[in-house]
Design a protein that fits this description.
Elements: E1 2-5, E2 11-15, E3 18-22, E4 44-46, H1 52-55, H2 58-65, E5 68-72, H3 73-80, E6 86-89, E7 94-97, E8 100-106, E9 123-129, E10 132-136, H4 149-152, E11 157-161, H5 170-179, E12 184-188, H6 200-209, E13 213-215, E14 222-224
Parallel strand pairs: 3-4, 4-5, 5-6, 10-11, 11-12, 12-13
Antiparallel strand pairs: 1-2, 1-14, 2-3, 7-8, 8-9, 9-10
């Protein structure tokens, strides 16, 4: 499993020959100006919620790739009504896709499209694929529901927002990593704009002091599990 960070909360995940794109917000992010969305592969596009900083490039990429858009019922239907391929889910439900099993789990946030359309309730994803399991929290506060995840799935990586103001901060993300019982963390949803700028060294040190590994990737950088 290869994971590429495209900035903000956008991730590319490769499982065998299947390309999954999560929350594509690239063209609106000046820090990701060197990323060409026309070269990004996507067989599936997973969306945690409907905010513009998670959905801006969905249609451009889906038109080119014919990717299946996977999200809650309201978001998936929104794109389905526009002629895109889609797979609707809801909280607590899971589905076996060709790349592995996806479960849509709880998140505490808000969710609406830029045009004001209701985007259903936000969520995160637990993906079990290629003998590696990851949790993508989406935009969320710290929530006790995270404790449910390790009851079903042993995680190899937890991807957590750490930028504060709109989501958890670093301290809450450390607690979240305890809740999901995973000490290998990929931080995201930070530095894109002023409200969520963080001190990288301080964030890494705080995780290190708790015997945890926080990875902060450069935009375009990849890791392999």
């Amino acid at each position: 499993m290869k994971i590429t960070f495209y900035g903000h909360a956008c991730l590319g995940i490769e499982v065998n020959d299947v390309a999954i794109l999560v929350d594509p917000f690239i063209t609106g992010n000046p820090k990701a100006a060197h990323i060409d969305i026309h070269t990004i592969k996507a067989d599936f596009i997973l969306l945690t919620h409907a905010h513009q900083d998670h959905t801006l490039d969905v249609e451009a990429i889906a038109k080119r790739t014919d990717a299946v858009i996977v999200s809650n019922y309201e978001i998936a239907s929104y794109y389905g009504n526009r002629g895109f391929s889609f797979h609707p889910m809801n909280h607590g439900g899971s589905w076996d896709f060709e790349f592995g099993t996806v479960k849509y789990v709880n998140a505490i946030h808000t969710s609406s499209f830029p045009d004001g359309t209701y985007g259903g309730q936000p969520g995160g994803f637990v993906i079990e694929g290629e003998r590696k399991n990851i949790y993508i929290a989406g935009d969320t506060a710290l929530t006790m529901d995270m404790k449910l995840i390790p009851m079903r799935t042993k995680l190899d990586l937890a991807i957590l927002p750490i930028g504060n103001n709109f989501t958890m901060d670093v301290e809450d993300a450390i607690i979240a990593s305890d809740f999901v019982q995973c000490d290998k963390i990929l931080g995201y949803h930070f530095d894109t704009f002023g409200y969520i700028e963080i001190n990288h060294d301080e964030a890494k040190r705080k995780f290190f002091d708790k015997n945890k590994d926080l990875m902060l990737l450069e935009i375009g950088q990849s890791i392999e599990l």
